[in-house]
Design goal:
The longest helix is centred in the middle third of the chain and has 31 residues. By secondary structure, the protein is of the alpha+beta class. A hairpin with a 6-residue loop joins strand 5 and strand 6. The chain is built from 3 helices and 6 strands, in the order H-H-E-E-H-E-E-E-E.
Amino acid sequence: MNYVMKQENGFTLIELIIVIVVLGIMSAVAIPKFIDLQDDATEATAEGIVGAINGSAELVRGAALVRGVASAGGNVLVSGSNVTVVAGGYPAATAAGIGSAVKIDSDWSGAVDTTTYVYQNASGNCTVRYSVVADATNPSFSTAIDAGCKK
């Protein structure tokens, strides 16, 4: 009699266990990266708001210069919004100024904080500040992202 050894196809139990353990370790390493995406999204949103503020401020100043209200301040109509400008033509740090020039979604709110206009996210841990120097000859504005936005 001739006996022929039969070749088995498939994986052994130990091989399957090793693969499952390796996949578990890989997922344990990858999960913290995905959890940290919320902080990255908040920081990116804050940087987007800074970009919107910078662009809007320059657009409003250009409109104020063209319409002749930049030297003393006043109001200028930009994209259907009446925006209050200070001497120099940049939007005032008020709701009628930069708050009217920049449209932000409902997750962020804007309010005046002494001489700056502050945008804050719904959870209150990230703030973007806008301030302006009213000067007819050398006007300027600045934007800043608070440390709470960057983890």
